[in-house]
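Quarterly update from the structural biology core.
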Amino acid sequence: MNCDIADIADFIEDNDGFAVYFHKNPDGDAVGSAYALVLALKAMKKEACAVCADEVPEGYRFMTDKVGSVPFRARHGIAVDTSAPYRLGEYENVKMAVVIDHHESNSFDAKYKYVLPESSSCSEIVYSLIREMGVPISSLMADLLYTGIITDTARFCSRSVNRDTFRAAYELSALGADTVSLGRRFTYEKDSKRLAVEKRLLEHMSITHGGLVAVTYLSHGDFEELSVTPDDTEGINEVIDRIKGVGIGVLVRERIEGKCRISVRTSAKYNADRFCALFGGGGHRYSGGCQTDGSAEEIAERLSEAAGEFIDKQDSL
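Predicted structure, tokenized:
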């Protein structure tokens, strides 16, 4: 059950020594919400750091390197943009005092838990919390939070976008977010390696079930041949999002041989969270993910069949 966001602000005011945790394979929303909160805590003269099982992707380091987050033995854990303990990787057993998230399937147990599934990004929630904390928003905080919003909403094109999304973006712009540069960086600008990745995904693309299912993959061999890093596949779901009429879109990444990370996007008619739950994952109404063992090609084939069966079952209800 949710506490009030004011309760979290009061807890932070009365305590010190915070580690802000965010999920492994971090995306822009996880990075943006975590590092903006760390900056806000530091502005309150609190000791704080950001912690993740994986390194911050290179594409966000131009902001995070300015935060000066040095790990220490913290007294209180805060989890942001993370739906379940296992998503923290090696930190899954850390007891969290505070959980801030927007995943409906959030399974954390914490005294101060604030989950808002209707929010299009965790960064929006953290923005509200920072205002509740009474901390002035710096231009770097604004950049981080705006990055979280635009990356988690596919540049305001996801179905989770609502008026609160635009209100937060407008206010962050007024507070100094470099909306033009950030928009170009995370929308248009692509290097030759990213273009090669998109080309390979299109080559592997399978569109079935009357155009309702689109599945593609990057195999372990593709990662090695193209010298691909996680940075090169950040937000790569846009390759599927561009296909008109798709009900369930699936992207499989096999960076480690035999270990596949799966991202799912759905139309308004089909629930991504429920589909991913069939494979031990979860997420949001329109986006989700899971992990499984096997080769990318065989997993892609299996999920293509499963997506078709899921659509048939939902359509028959």
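The domain at 5-185 is CATH 3.90.1640.10 (inorganic pyrophosphatase (n-terminal core)).
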